[in-house]
TrEMBL record:
Keywords: Signal
Name this polypeptide is given: Uncharacterized protein
Domain of life: Eukaryota
Endpoints of the signal sequence: 1-24
Length: 181
């Protein structure tokens, strides 16, 4: 009986540490950090050394977040976040501190996305205080503005990552199956 108890404790702690590793809590946390300039920009656009101030002046935007680097796709479609992460991780991510969340600001006009900015930031709402997750929408002039917030692990959560969720779920199920046997 005592041997079974020791084995269960070893399995429990092993599963706990494996889950910590898989969920990314033992590694630094990252968010995407860049501005996708939208469908009006493609591989023929000339940006040279454009700054956020120049870009915002050009589109006559006030109060719109902007983070370099700028991302432009071949045909103006939204960027492939997995490709960016695999090939440009150091350029398009920021290390999230404990007081920050990952955010994605999306600006749409007539139900079409005009641009999107990804960043590490702090989020606070007057009615609920500090925010750590969820999406919030509002209309500003003729634009729909959506801000989505999340906390992430090694891979940014302000994009899409079903692999990580699947890996965590598989780890939990494997540990439960072993303990229940």
């Amino acid at each position: 009986m005592e041997t079974k108890h020791i084995v269960l404790n070893v399995v429990f702690f092993g599963c706990f540490f494996l889950l910590q590793y898989v969920s990314g809590q033992t590694e630094p946390s990252y968010c995407f950090r860049f501005t996708w300039l939208g469908p009006e920009y493609d591989n023929t656009s000339t940006l040279l050394n454009t700054t956020c101030s120049e870009y915002l002046d050009d589109i006559r935007a006030v109060g719109v977040p902007c983070r370099t680097p700028f991302v432009v796709t071949y045909d103006g479609s939204p960027p492939d976040l997995d490709y960016l992460l695999d090939n440009y991780r150091d350029q398009v991510t920021c290390r999230r501190t404990k007081s920050q969340v990952c955010a994605k600001f999306t600006y749409s006009f007539n139900n079409e996305v005009q641009n999107a900015t990804y960043m590490c930031t702090r989020a606070y709402t007057a009615d609920r205080g500090y925010e750590t997750g969820g999406c919030f929408k509002q209309r500003v002039d003729a634009h729909d503005v959506e801000v989505c917030l999340c906390e992430s692990g090694r891979d940014p959560c302000n994009g899409a990552s079903s692999f990580k969720i699947s890996l965590v779920l598989i780890t939990i199920l494997a540990c439960l199956k072993f303990v229940l046997i």
